[in-house]
């Protein structure tokens, strides 16, 4: 039996949250369209006259008329002069003619979506493994967040206005996929002077992030299914980028002096490159000893391998002098150097860079042009002036002093409030402190208890490959004031009272 038009069904659909912000005629049009697509209104069904429906809904006739006009234009209804408006009859075959695959209720999540439906094997792998979460707001002990409240935003704004005035509309066009030349020059000058690098502007590739650089490395240097070496424990974002490129991640253990080069030489996986964080190993904070840096360079040269050096927060070194980057020691040009401005300036800038061996520049630039074209010119040229005028170095120096003080405050607070719960590993630099849980304490449970007190803890165990995983946290401190560090540590300690925290 053919269905009749049910006014109450339409009224219920008009109250759907997705329609509430629309104009009234749009709400009626969208609600009727949804009922047609759902099969609630049969093909050929006669709709109420505009005057009758307007009266029933308590709206003006023109409102309903406008809704019908749009439905007619879109092909959902037909209007016959002297007869009325009807649901288009041909929609029945299009919507319901093909047999649909039966979906079991357990396959549908709470949003009515079948997880992984229609995805490629790679897509299903990404869905199941999860993404990488970046902090949208400042939370207690969130990792990797620089201090942004004291950023010289007035200076930045003035320089950006100068760029707009000097370059006019040209900055609104597409840019060079390799990066704006003034910025590449500024980056090369900075790295050669401050990090002991050996590079020219022609070797610099400006990107949107370090993760983009890692993904490019995996795509261009490692075939799908082939191995790539990663420090164990190692940076979670790097592992995810490599896995998304379908590389097989093989862990190489680290110790107090960084990645173990003896294990690197003993590796027989056939991997073509290794990812390392020499300045401040992530997450242990260890600095790769000079002897091992040279061994790493020689290994790459002798074996024809590539070194991916992630120098993500090398600017912030507090104990002694920072060690020169591996790229500057590598006379064989087997090192790909990665840097970011998200840690030194602010995360919303979304800008990083690579130093590439000359033979790789063209391929990486081509790949980047395919991926997302270029980085916005306005931001690049503003940053170039920020560096040329000395503001970048001044800001880094100020943040280095500030973060050094905040590290000391955090270490003192850990000793005062978390004694017997965790042991802090004092890092020589960086923006976070690794903490190992004492025996009898559960990482999963302490993270859950901390979250209930509004404290964000990043677990250590997920950063380990294999079965041997250390339990603990990474405590970020760089974005917190002294008061925020102390008060957050008190909240954390209260949440982890021994009678509640012990397993």
Automatic annotation (TrEMBL):
Membrane-spanning parts: none
Q: Which InterPro entries match?
A: Aminotransferase_I/II_large, HTH_trans_reg/aminotransferase, PyrdxlP-dep_Trfase, PyrdxlP-dep_Trfase_major, Tscrpt_reg_HTH_GntR, WH-like_DNA-bd_sf, WH_DNA-bd_sf
What is a GO molecular function of this protein? DNA-binding transcription factor activity
Leader sequence range is none
PROSITE patterns (alphabetical): HTH_GNTR
List residues of the HTH gntR-type domain: 22-90
Q: Which UniProt keywords apply?
A: DNA-binding, Pyridoxal phosphate, Transcription, Transcription regulation
Pfam families linked to this entry: Aminotran_1_2, GntR
CDD domains tied to this protein: AAT_like, WHTH_GntR
| Similarity field | In the C-terminal section; belongs to the class-I pyridoxal-phosphate-dependent aminotransferase family.
This protein is called Transcriptional regulator, GntR family
Upper classification of the organism: Bacteria, Pseudomonadati, Pseudomonadota, Gammaproteobacteria, Pseudomonadales
């Amino acid at each position: 039996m053919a269905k009749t038009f049910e006014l109450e069904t339409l009224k219920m659909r008009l109250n759907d949250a997705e329609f509430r912000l629309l104009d009234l005629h749009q709400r009626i049009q969208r609600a009727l369209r949804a009922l047609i697509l759902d099969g609630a209104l049969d093909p050929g069904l006669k709709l109420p006259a505009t005057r009758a429906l307007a009266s029933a809904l308590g709206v003006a006739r023109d409102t309903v008329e406008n809704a019908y006009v749009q439905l007619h234009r879109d092909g959902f209804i037909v209007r016959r002069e002297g007869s009325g408006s009807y649901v288009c009859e041909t929609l029945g075959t299009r919507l319901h003619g093909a047999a649909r695959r039966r979906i079991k209720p357990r396959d549908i999540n709470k949003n009515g979506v079948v997880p992984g439906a229609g995805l490629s094997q790679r897509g299903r792998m990404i869905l199941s493994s999860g993404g990488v979460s970046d902090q949208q707001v400042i939370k207690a002990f969130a990792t990797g967040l620089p201090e942004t409240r004291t950023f010289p935003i007035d200076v930045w704004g003035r320089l950006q206005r100068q760029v707009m005035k000097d370059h006019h509309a040209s900055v609104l066009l597409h840019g060079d996929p390799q990066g704006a030349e003034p910025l590449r020059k500024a980056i090369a000058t900075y790295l050669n002077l401050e990090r002991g690098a050996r590079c020219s502007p022609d070797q610099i590739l400006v990107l949107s992030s370090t993760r983009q650089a890692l993904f490019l490395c995996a795509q261009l240097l490692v075939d799908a299914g082939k191995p790539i070496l990663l420090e164990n424990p190692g940076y979670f974002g790097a592992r995810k980028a490599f896995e998304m490129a379908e590389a097989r991640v093989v862990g190489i253990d680290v110790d107090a002096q960084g990645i173990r080069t003896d294990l690197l030489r003993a590796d027989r996986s056939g991997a073509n490159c290794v990812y390392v964080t020499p300045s401040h190993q992530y997450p242990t904070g260890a600095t790769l000893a000079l002897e091992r840096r040279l061994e790493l360079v020689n290994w790459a040269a002798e074996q024809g391998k590539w070194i991916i050096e992630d120098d993500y927060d090398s600017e912030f070194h507090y104990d002694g002098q920072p060690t020169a980057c591996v790229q500057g020691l590598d006379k064989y040009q087997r090192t790909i150097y990665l840097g970011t401005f998200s840690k030194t300036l602010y995360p919303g800038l979304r800008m990083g860079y690579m130093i590439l061996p000359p033979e790789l520049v063209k391929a990486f630039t081509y790949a980047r042009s395919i991926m997302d074209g270029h980085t916005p010119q306005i931001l690049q040229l503003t940053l170039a002036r920020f560096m040329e005028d000395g503001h970048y170095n001044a800001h880094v120096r100020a943040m280095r002093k500030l973060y050094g003080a905040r590290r000391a405050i955090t270490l003192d607070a850990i000793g005062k409030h978390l004694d017997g719960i965790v042991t802090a590993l004092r890092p020589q630099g960086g923006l976070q402190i690794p903490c190992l849980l004492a025996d009898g304490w559960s990482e999963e449970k302490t993270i859950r208890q901390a979250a209930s007190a509004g404290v964000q803890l990043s677990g250590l165990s997920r950063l380990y490959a294999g079965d041997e995983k250390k339990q603990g946290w990474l405590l970020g401190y760089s974005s917190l004031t002294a008061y925020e560090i102390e008060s957050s540590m008190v909240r954390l300690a209260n949440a982890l009272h021994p009678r509640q925290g012990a397993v």
